[in-house]
Amino acid sequence: METGCSSSLVALHQARGSLLSGECNLALVGGVNALLAPELFVALSQAQMLSPDGRCRTFDAEANGYVRSEGCAVLVLKRHSDALRDNDRVLGLLAGSAVNQDGKSNGLTAPNGLAQQAVIRRALASAGVSAQDVSLVEAHGTGTSLGDPIEVDGIAQTYGVHSATQPTLWMGSVKSNIGHTEPVAGLAGVIKVLLALQHERIPQTLHVRQLNPHIRIEGSRCAVATQSQPWPRSERPRLAGVSSFGFGGANAHVVLQEAPLPVAGNAASDAMLPPRVELLTLSAKTGPALRASARGYASFLLSDDAPSLRTVCHTANAHRNAMFHRVGFVAQSKQELAHALQRFAGSDETATAFSAQVFGAAQCKTALLFTGQLSRLRA
Fold this sequence. Notes:
Elements: H1 7-21, E1 27-33, H2 39-46, E2 71-77, H3 80-85, E3 93-101, H4 113-127, E4 136-138, H5 147-159, E5 169-172, H6 175-178, H7 185-199, E6 201-202, E7 222-224, E8 229-230, E9 239-245, E10 250-257, H8 267-272, E11 278-284, H9 287-302, H10 309-318, E12 325-331, H11 334-345, E13 358-359, H12 364-369, E14 373-376
Parallel strand pairs: 4-5, 4-9, 5-7, 12-13
Antiparallel strand pairs: 1-2, 2-14, 3-10, 6-8, 9-10, 11-12
C-alpha cells in the first residue's frame, strides 16, 4: 500500500477494518524506508523541502525543512478479545482510526487543513471518545514553516479550547528525534506513543526554542512538549492521537488507548503465559568470524557469571556495530540460546550477507506476538 508518508498508518487503518469485519484473525502491519538513490534527494533539495542543517525543527520558528531517514517498523494486531483469550502481552489498544483525502489544496507543501480536521473528527467518532479525553497528539510534524502551522491549527480546532476542567493537550513529533522515515512515519509515531504509555512519560520534542510565529495556540489547550512530561495512569484510561499525512493527499489519524492492567493474582492465567522470548543478533566481517563469535557467546552464556538472557541480547543488539555477515537467534533461556549458537557454530551454514536467518524458529511466532519494534537503520 503506497500513499506516501501516510502509508503505514493507512495500512494500520486497513488492518483494523479487516480484523473487525472478521476477514482475518491476526494482522502484521509494517513499513520500511531505505534511501538507495540520489534522485529524490536532488528533487526535494531543489524544491527547498529538506533541512540544510540536518535538524527537524518541528513547531520551531527556525523550521527549515525535513530530514530524510531510514527505518523499519512492524506491529502485530489482534482483536482484543482474542489477545486476552490467547494470553498475549497487549501493548496498547487501537481504539479508532480514519482515512480521508485532501482533495484540492494549495500545493505539495500546503495541505488542506479542513481535510486534516475532518479525519481527526472521524477517528474520534470511530473510537467513541471525546476529544477532551485525549491528552497527547503525535503530530505528522515534518518541520516545515508552512505545513506545521496548518496541522497545529487543525489539532487546536478539533481537540478543543482551554478550560479549567480540561487538561493540557501535549503535542510532539518523533521526527525531531529520528528524522522523517517517510512511509514508516505513522508507525514510528504509534510506537513512540506505546513506549510513552509504558514508561508513563511524554517524551520531549527536540529543537524547539521559539514557537513558529504562524502557530496560533492561544486560547486552546494545546502545548508543545518541549520538556519531558509525566503521564501517569489514572482512573480513566489514557488516550493519544497519531496523525500521518501523505504528499498525495491521503490523510490518516488513529486513536490509541492504554492497555488494561493484567489481572493480578490469577495463578491459572499466569501459568498459561508463555516464557519471554529474546532475540540475539550477531554480525561479523566473514562467515568464519561469525561462527567464532557464536561459539564465544555460547561459552559465555553457559558460564556461572553470565548475566540474564535479556541483558546479553540487549547488549549485543543495541551496542554492537552491524557488519556484513549476519545471523539471528531466538530463545527462552540462556541454555536454549547457547545450544542454538553451538549448532550454528558447528554447522556448515553460511550466513549470507543481509540474510534473515533465524535459528530456534519454533519460537518465532510467539516472539512476534509480543513485539512492536522500530529500528533506525542509519542516521
